[in-house]
Design a protein that fits this description.
Blueprint lengths: L7 H50 L1 H5 L3 H9 L7 E8 L8 E7 L13 H4 L3 E2 L3 E10 L2 E11 L1 H53 L12 H116 L5 H39 L5 E4 H11 L1 H4 L5 E5 L5 E4 L1 H19 L7 E9 L2 E8 L6 H4 L19 H12 L3 E6 L5 E8 L1 E3 L3
Parallel strand pairs: 7-9
Antiparallel strand pairs: 1-2, 1-5, 3-4, 4-5, 6-8, 8-13, 9-10, 10-12, 11-12
Helix pairs in contact: 1-5, 6-7, 7-8, 7-10, 8-10, 10-12
Length: 539
């Protein structure tokens, strides 16, 4: 991410203007507030003085109950612009509170309601947004005979406040303009040497003329930078001269090396041709190795099948050989006329027993061959057919018996006995074989006795096949890519990393289903497979 840059000019003007603005606003605001408060106090003192004058001048008229004389006295205050209303309240001995006696109202304002109910509050001046009010006692010969109420406007104070704000704005604008002009002049004086120095550096960079030097300036900081830059240019110039000399020597050496390179090139061409021939031979060997590996895998499968089939056939041969020996003895006794009924009866019983052994073992061998044949046919065919799901799983387990019986691992199958499905048994066969072999190779590599659970359920013409083992589990970094090709934990130990990739393709493409694998270290794997099927009716 590119770091944000700043201009010295912009920063200098911004900082100075910010400081000036804050300082000027603070000083003007404090000065204005102080002056406005002083003006308000002056207005308050004037109102108190007028109230005192009115109280003194109206005392005689109020005492004599002369309203005409009092009205003439109050009318004289029309010459005071700030006074809007004056009320005179009489304090009679038999009255519970003062009563209205006389008043003065400015013609442009009109009468104002009596305020003697606010007597305690208005003994000190009270202000609202536009007016100032107060009451003053009226005494005659030391006796309290009434009160005077004054209501004055604050037009003069508002005008003063407005004029003060306008003058402050004008002063602030003028001061900021002067500060901006002075700052702009200052930044020009400060940045001009830097710009000259920058132009010089750009010229040196463009022309590669390291003999140029930075000019002197009258700023100590820029002058120190110029000296350091000149020292660096001195070193660069010396190094550049050395580099030019070295380049000249290299050109001379290159001329001598061209002949050697030409000779080596010819030798390399010959070596490359030999390498190409070797690579072609290696590809042939690789193909042979692949074919050999295929034959080896086929040989292992045939060996496993042969081992499974040899056992019942061997038992059948043993039983038939024993029966043949018994038959020879009976035949000899018959020819010698020594055959007894007990011998014949014993021979018949033994013959039936040995024939039963031969029949059962031959039937077992035939069943094994049929199962292996069906597995082989299913693996090589993608055609759909109706089959018994449990029988298919058992055939798969039977084909893997040579691998399973070498271990103590347990395989549990939870599948309805008569579940008939119409689907593709070949992909299902290969999926089960790959999952079981994956558990044997990876999950149970460090485990003596593992457990595999295969559960099959159906719902809404969909088959759910759940495969579980309690093996080592799959690491998190591999689980996210478990179905990718060539992903294996047995790299270098024979694992190709194609088993689960093949399972994923079989489920999603051949069966048109979906697969999900969940696993964590030490808790085995849980594979959920779901694909569409047709559920055939039970026979």
């Amino acid at each position: 991410m590119m770091q944000k840059t700043f201009s010295i000019k912009g920063m200098l003007i911004s900082i100075v203007m910010l400081i000036c603005s804050l300082t000027l606003i603070a000083s003007l605001a404090l000065s204005s507030i102080h002056d406005i408060n002083a003006q308000y106090r002056k207005l308050q003192h004037q109102l108190e003085a007028y109230a005192t004058i009115i109280a003194i001048s109206s005392a005689a008229a109020l005492y004599q109950n002369d309203t005409d004389m009092l009205a003439q006295q109050l009318q004289a205050f029309s010459a005071v612009p700030m006074i809007n209303n004056i009320h005179i309240y009489s304090l009679e001995a038999d009255a519970a509170e003062p009563v209205f006696f006389s008043s003065y109202n400015r013609q442009t304002i009109g009468p104002y309601p009596t305020q003697f109910h606010r007597l305690p509050e208005l003994l000190t001046p009270q202000q609202s947004r536009h007016y100032l009010e107060m009451m003053a006692p009226i005494e005659f010969s030391g006796q309290l005979i009434g009160y005077t109420y004054l209501r004055a406007n604050k037009v003069e104070l508002s005008g003063y406040t407005q004029n003060r704000i306008l003058s402050d704005i004008a002063i602030a604008a003028l001061a900021l303009l002067l500060a901006f002009l002075a700052t702009n002049r200052l930044q020009q004086w400060l940045t001009r040497p830097i710009k000259i120095l920058l132009d010089q550096v750009q010229t040196i960079t463009k022309t590669q003329d390291f003999s140029l030097r930075a000019p002197q300036t009258n700023l100590d900081e820029v002058e120190a930078f110029s000296k350091a830059l000149n020292l660096m240019l001195d070193k660069i110039e010396r190094q550049f001269n050395k580099l030019q000399s070295a380049e000249q020597e290299i050109r001379q050496l290159n001329q001598g090396l061209e002949q050697k390179i030409s000779e080596r090139t010819q030798a390399l061409k010959e070596s490359n041709q030999e390498l190409l021939n070797t690579l072609e031979t290696l590809h042939q060997y690789q193909n042979q190795i692949v074919e050999t590996e295929k034959m080896s895998s086929l040989g292992q499968m045939v060996a496993g099948i042969a081992h499974e089939v040899n056992t019942p056939i061997g038992l059948g041969i043993t039983a038939s050989t024993l029966l043949q020996d018994k038959l020879k003895v009976i035949e000899q006794n018959f020819q010698d006329k020594k055959l007894t009924s007990s011998q014949l009866s014993r021979f018949i019983g033994e013959a039936q027993e040995n024939l039963g052994i031969v029949y059962r073992n031959l039937e077992r061998a035939a069943s094994l061959i049929r199962s292996f044949k069906q597995v082989a046919v299913d693996q090589s065919s993608d055609n759909a057919r109706t089959f018994n799901m449990l029988q298919l799983i058992n055939e798969v387990l039977l084909s893997l018996r040579p691998n399973l019986k070498k271990t103590s691992h347990e395989v549990v199958v939870n599948c309805p006995e008569h579940l008939q499905l119409e689907s593709k048994p070949g992909p299902i066969n290969q999926i089960l074989i790959n999952l079981i072999m994956n558990s044997l190779i990876h999950a149970f590599s460090d485990q003596q006795q593992g457990k595999i659970i295969i559960t099959v359920t159906t719902e809404n013409n969909h088959c759910q096949l759940i495969y579980q083992d309690n093996g080592a589990g799959v690491p998190e970094h591999i689980r996210k890519r478990i179905f990718d090709p060539f992903v294996t934990t047995k790299r270098g130990e024979g694992g190709s990393g194609l088993g689960l990739h093949l399972v994923y393709n079989l489920v999603t493409q051949a069966l048109r289903g979906k697969i999900q694998l969940e696993s964590s270290i030490g808790e085995g794997v849980h594979v959920f497979i779901e694909f569409p099927v047709l559920i055939a009716a039970d026979d």
